[in-house]
Design brief:
alpha+beta; four-stranded antiparallel sheet; about 30% strand
């Protein structure tokens, strides 16, 4: 239930409701003689639309929050500057009644996490880190750069991408444009997921709530692998370096083994005599980064030394990142079923469950609660039962 895309103003909120919320926020700050920057949060039951009598005070944070840029974009004020000025004893530059809303703004939280694996955080060196500023006055805020390492010791957010426009759809399209040109590798990230969320019909219409992502399920989760057409293109390109795949009384055929990041895949290529040698030769002959709708992969010819295939098939459960084991749910020799929780790992402020890949028996157990583990440490090995 973490925040993913933030926007201002709120879709569906009328001016009267907004005035009541702002007045309540000012009243709360005055009640405790608060001086400084702060953020007051409310929670709404919007089943009958946004109404002041269905919105409740939730909490106050005595600081600016991650989403403050959307407020800055629509009000034209620099809240960080205001925070520093007030802290040094100066008065606020404007009063409440002097503030106004102009246009629309959206912010996407760019996380080092893998949506295809339940949003499991990802760590490692950012070999490729190219962000595109959204057009028409967008901005980017980040604390990392190409070559930086994403550590397991902090929140996995690596950047904020902010857009603005005259209308909500202007801001949405500008944000989508910026995200579509983003390329990050090999650290997994949620760029492709954010793009699909921005394109979702309910999101486009402003019909959003905290259950939207769960309801949409796999429809907004990008695939872990490139599509078949992309793999075929790479396979055809590589097949030109190989034999023709001659078969008696059949089309010439070649099974081409590719390595997508560290996953092996085989693509069957059929080559007709009429088009052999006419395939696109401008593509990469070796490994190359491929970018599509926010997802980036390294695709190239299979290299036995670089493949990680067989790890899951062997039943070896490796730690996906450095972290601390907070629970061990099984014992050596215990029978387990596919999907059963084996270990709970804590890393990057989140808990992650490691589960059995198939039915079997715990043949090896190298984990105990409280222990610190490194990435790819062998924690459990499941042995299939015939």
């Amino acid at each position: 239930h973490q925040k993913v895309i933030e926007e201002a103003p709120a879709p569906g909120m009328d001016e009267a409701t907004r005035e009541q919320l702002c007045a309540a926020a000012v009243k709360a700050a005055k009640a405790v003689d608060y001086v400084g920057a702060g953020t007051i949060e409310f929670i709404a039951d919007a089943r009958e639309g946004l109404r002041a009598d269905r919105i409740w005070f939730m909490e106050m944070n005595t600081r600016l929050q991650v989403e403050h840029p959307v407020t800055e974009e629509i009000t034209g004020v620099d809240l960080v500057e205001w925070q520093l000025r007030v802290a040094s004893g100066e008065a606020l530059p404007k009063r409440q009644e002097e503030l106004s809303i102009n246009g629309w703004a959206m912010e996407a939280r760019l996380y080092a996490e893998d949506p295809a694996k339940g949003f499991l955080p990802s760590v490692g060196r950012l070999e490729e880190f190219r962000l595109e500023v959204p057009p028409f006055g967008g901005r980017i805020e980040t604390g990392v750069d190409e070559g930086s390492s994403v550590s397991p010791f902090y929140d996995p957010m690596i950047a904020k991408v902010i857009s603005s426009g005259e209308t909500r759809d202007d801001a949405r399209l500008a944000l989508a444009h910026g995200l579509a040109e983003t390329s990050i590798w090999p650290v997994k990230n949620n760029t492709g997921f954010l793009l699909r969320l921005l394109e979702d019909e309910d999101f486009r219409s402003g019909d959003v709530d905290t259950g939207l992502i769960q309801r949409k399920g796999d429809s907004i989760i990008p695939s872990a692998m490139p599509d078949d057409a992309t793999l075929l293109w790479f396979a055809e390109d590589l097949a030109e370096l190989c034999l023709s795949g001659f078969r008696m009384n059949s089309p010439r055929q070649k099974n081409v083994r590719l390595l997508v990041d560290d996953i092996e895949t085989t693509v069957e290529v059929e080559v007709n005599a009429s088009n052999w040698g006419l395939l696109d030769t401008s593509g990469p002959m070796g490994a190359s980064l491929f970018h599509d709708r926010g997802s980036t992969w390294m695709i190239g010819p299979y290299r036995a030394s670089g493949s990680s295939m067989g790890i899951v098939a062997s039943g070896a459960i490796l730690s996906p990142m450095p972290g601390r084991i907070i629970a061990v749910e099984v014992a050596q020799g215990q029978a387990v079923t596919k999907g059963q929780k084996l270990i709970t790992l804590e890393a990057m402020k989140m808990e992650h469950s490691l589960t059995a890949p198939f039915d079997g028996v715990v043949a090896e157990l190298n984990a105990e609660a409280g222990a610190q583990v490194q990435v790819e440490a062998l924690l459990v090995r499941i042995e299939a039962v015939e």
